[in-house]
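User: Could you check the structure of this?
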Amino acid sequence: MSEIVFYTNPMSRGRMVRWMLEEVGVPYRAEIVPFGPPMKTPDYRSVNPLGKVPSIRHGDNVVTEVAAICAYLADAFPEAHLAPPPADRASYYRWIFFAAGPLEACLVNRALGVTVPDDKRGMVGYGRYETMLDTLEAAVSASDYVAGKAFTAADVYVGSHIGWGMHTGAIEKRQAFTDYLGRVGSRPAARRAAELDDAAAAAMQNT
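Assistant: Sure, the predicted structure tokens are below.
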């Protein structure tokens, strides 16, 4: 089996990929990349030209962008059952890309205090914050998991955004979000990932 090298920082979106890797359950080697100059070296930018984390290298394959990494790992390790059969992936793809596009853009703007003028809302994928939240609430309320009855990589990605959003105040703490996060965030892999990243963050602070 080709080695997975996981480039991350425990204070980044790499926490989402750590959770996904723990769900997959295969060995991987984590390389912690400090913010600042270490992320901009020619060596690391040969992995991620933007000089950002997370990224993974799996054999000869390099994957960046959290949604892409989650989808790639689900496909690369089908024995983990983190993606539905190809014929049943409509909702799976829909909510992964909803989170990667409208949801993330909306939450980042909210966290930055960016207000889109009413006459420019047609230019942003989420339109209005309230509409985005209502759509997300309906998605996580329709079934136990966002793509149906089974937990998938889409829940890692959507659940991570909801957790971050409620933690920072970018997402209202609606009961549907709390209930959904309770279902997905209590998984053993999610807890292991959080413990590993918390330990890595503490180690960085002590160096």
